[in-house]
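hey all, quick one before standup. I had two proteins in the batch that finished overnight and I want to keep them in one place so we stop losing track of which output belongs to which input. First protein below, input sequence then structure tokens straight from the run.
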Amino acid sequence: MSVYAANDETNNLEQDICKLIAGKLGSVSLADCQEMDLQLTGATSVNNIPIVQKEYPPLNSRKPQAKVLVLGGIHGDEYSSVSIVFKWMKKLNQYHSGLFHWRVVPLLNPDGLLRKKSQRMNANGVDLNRNFPTPNWEKESNHYWIERTSRNPRRYPGRAPLSEPESRWFAQEIESFKPDVIVSVHAPHGILDFDGPPKPPARFGQLYLRLLGTYPGSLGNYAGVHKRIPVVTIELPRAGIMPTTSEVSRIWVDLIRWMRGNLPKKIEQTPVQVSRDDQAGPS
């Protein structure tokens, strides 16, 4: 049964999803969520919960250097991966300068997060980060799940690539938005991972680069390796506890600086100035 009653009024839909998120996450209040003015994407989860996003579009004063797609909450039990994206949206609300064109999806897996006991998988029991259409998916994903994880239900890849509405919508979003980089936030490994071109970052804040490798059906494999879109995976140290305010800002600043210097569509600016996006701003 759906945990969400469909409502034709957009404002009520946005308010209701904010109530659900704020009721689950201690680091995101109802006011914090409502302040974001989240936009309905038209996509919903298995349980009919809207998938929302926030866009920070180009400004008339400058041409964006690149398009950035930010993703939180692909795993529903990684609370901090959602909360930190809300903190970064708050910075963008205040400091967005047009240096980048941002599209931010704070919670791709609402069914996993918003159930009584949060779980990694969606409502169908599928790990969305194993459900993307990598080459030879049918053979490799099931072999990995059976032989390497002993049918661990937390790693179930699904019955077919993009079998789930959440992963299917996000793959369509990649195709339509055409990002120059995807930033995906996870927990709790406490490292920085990277797939695809160009040069990976060495560290963001206290998170140091440690390549974890690719998995059949993973976003890094699908978008980074096969579509050649850089995928930066930020693995926060804890799933249920946010980093300190200063560490949240340091990760953000290091991300911006890396993108300024390494994205394929880098532009030269004369004179070189620090964008407002580089400022940590109030938390």
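OK second protein, same deal, sequence then tokens:
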Amino acid sequence: MLGRMLQWATNLFPFWVLLGGVAAMFRPTWFTWFHGQGIVWGLAVIMLGMGITLSVDDFKRVLTMPRAVLLGVGAQFVIMPFLGWSIARLLSLDTAFAVGLILVSCCPGGTASNVVSYLARANVALSVLMTMCSTFAAVILTPVLTKWLAGAYVPVDAWQLFLQTVKVVLAPVLLGLALHHATPRLVRAVLPVAPLVSVAVIVLICASIIGKQVDSIRESGLTLLTAVLLLHVGGFLLGHCLARAFGYDELIRRTVSIEVGMQNSGLGAVLAQKGFPALPAAATPSAISATFHSIIGSFLAGVWRLRPPRAGGVAPETPPAEAPAAAARTQD
């Protein structure tokens, strides 16, 4: 019973993020106490939670479906950064918002995509692997792409972004991976509550940033909201189209769409605060991003759940027995 309640509360993450964002617009002080190093440690806890769900076998599974994983990770770091840069230029965003939009577009896929893939009846095992691989690739690609695309707006210290990414992504994930094998009993005890803790921390991070930037959000209004909405709608749409162009079946198209369209917005917020201290508003697109991609992803999951995928296209590389295990791990 308790497990089902925790699972139910976790699956409502889009509602919690939206509720936190709306509350922060009217009662900023409820959330602005959560700031600075608290946000950094909060993201580290989220990534640690991801790490304890991983095992060495997960890395071996990448070898069983390399083409699909490569497609998803490649699309993540090609489609989204291009969209972020293009939208910032097209809408002539203010410097801080442009840098923030580009930064979040250069981030890896978020772990929430695994839950959405489960709800959408997509390929959960593939989603988990794509998230894992894009997270590790982000240690190099996020700083490099951000410097390349956002460098026209402000000087970008790629080395500082790299160090911050190692600190809040790589180190916690590797620690979680080690704990998965070294302390299996502890991990089994923690796993049921870990996803809900991650949701709570994401809500706090996003609401805190929105609360601090209420005035700038109200001033930018429709322009900023449109920019973030276009980023994620474009990611979901182009991810699906790309998988279709490569001949994959509907199951994998949905998975790639979700993985590309959903970003690790918490990472974007932390990197914006640490990498661009002179531009406090740069973290705002990440906070709005968390709300938008959660809502869009959940909407698609609801639609796709009612429409079972039809057979056809390239056969999935995933062994059928792998998907239930990945789904169970995602929901724990």
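Flagging for whoever picks this up: The radius of gyration is 18 Å. The mean pLDDT is 79.
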